[in-house]
Write a structure and sequence with these properties.
The protein is 42% helix and 11% strand. The chain has 347 residues and is of the alpha/beta class.
């Protein structure tokens, strides 16, 4: 499959770059990155699968030199964080549950992403041996951003298009199901060698242009209450899960990154950050907020991309990603805990 050819290229690049790092011995605290998640992190993996969730066409990537498959106008959050050598498994539309995102047809959900990492692991072991590979993973940074599609494109979509969780179970039970599954996934990553793991929570999905447009009864300047409540329910349980796993997964350093409140502060105080619009898509086709149709070839563009918080119906612009990245890199424990990304990098 094409997706594995893409990963193979990345694996060769990773191994070549890391031979030199490994030679530095114990004084080097960093050996590469492994990225898992959804469209917030996807750097082009969906280009290689049959899916309705693609962004490998103009005007996506207009500030990156051209479309790459990133769901933004320029750099993603992990690009800005300086995640250089490594492998990115993230996929737009992906979720914790395997049935999430089926409305997009193809997507690489979290279980499949970890399967791909396991293949990467075996390839690296074949090249440098088990001991060196486990040492590499011990120093590497792992990033995850997953869960928003389980809410937006599973629980919150009409039952005719979904598994009808919203008709069958209360939100508390659905979120508990997500936590149980994600706990197994993080444990599996640990068992495969991951130690330093940054886990982003779910953002304020009720503030996205998509949710504003699909809930037309809201006031013009207000986010949609229920999706944000659902995200906060998810995040509360996620934070407890991270605390629990930190104590049970030996040698792990799990970091909880509060993407929700960083993004919400940008939205609520957008002018303070230099933005002029915090509720609409810069790349738009239809809807009062430009949130009804994904960014595509027939889309119109806002005049100043750096003045918009949102690039498309769901994802931040590069300007917003810049601010979020800086918050996670050097933020205090109100934003990212127990340590920030820079401190994790140096640990």
């Amino acid at each position: 499959m094409a997706i594995y050819s893409f990963f193979s290229f990345k694996i060769i690049t990773l191994i070549t770059a890391l031979f030199g790092i490994l030679c530095l011995g114990e004084s080097s605290n960093f050996s590469g990155s492994f990225v898992f998640g959804d469209g917030l992190f996807d750097a082009g993996n969906n280009n290689f699968i049959a899916t309705l969730r693609k962004s490998d066409f103009y005007p996506n990537g207009i500030d990156f030199g051209g479309p790459t498959g990133r769901f933004t106008n320029g750099k993603t959050l992990v690009d800005i964080l300086g995640v250089l050598e490594g492998v990115n498994y993230a996929s737009g539309g992906a979720g914790i549950l395997n049935e999430t995102g089926k409305i997009f047809v193809g997507r690489i959900n979290m279980d499949a992403q970890i399967d791909n990492f396991e293949s990467t692991r075996q390839n690296i072991i074949s090249s440098i041996g088990l001991t060196a590979t486990m040492q590499l993973f011990k120093k590497a940074l792992f990033f995850t951003s997953i869960g928003s599609n389980d809410l937006l494109h599973n629980y919150l979509i009409p039952s005719i298009l979904s598994t009808a969780y919203n008709d069958l179970v209360p939100p508390q039970e659905f979120v508990a199901t997500l936590m149980s599954k994600f706990s197994l996934q993080l444990t599996r990553l640990h068992n495969l060698g991951a130690r330093k793991i940054v886990v982003l929570n779910v953002g304020p999905i009720g503030c996205t242009p998509n949710q504003r447009d699909t809930n037309p009864n809201i006031l013009l300047d207000k986010c949609v209450v229920f999706p944000n409540w659902l995200a906060q329910l998810f995040n509360t349980q996620l934070k407890s899960l991270i605390t629990e796993l930190t104590t049970t997964l030996e040698g792990s350093k799990l970091v909880y990154a509060d993407f929700y409140n960083v993004m919400k502060d940008i939205i609520d105080n957008y002018s303070k950050y230099g933005f002029e619009n915090s509720d609409s898509s810069c790349c738009y086709v239809a809807g009062r907020f430009g949130g009804l149709i994904p960014c595509g070839l027939k889309s119109k563009l806002c005049l100043e991309r750096s003045k918009y918080v949102y690039w498309d119906p769901y994802n931040p612009s590069q300007a917003a990603n810049d601010i979020i990245a800086k918050s996670l890199l050097d933020g205090d424990t109100n934003i990212i805990s127990p340590i920030n990304v820079r401190q994790l990098f140096q640990s």
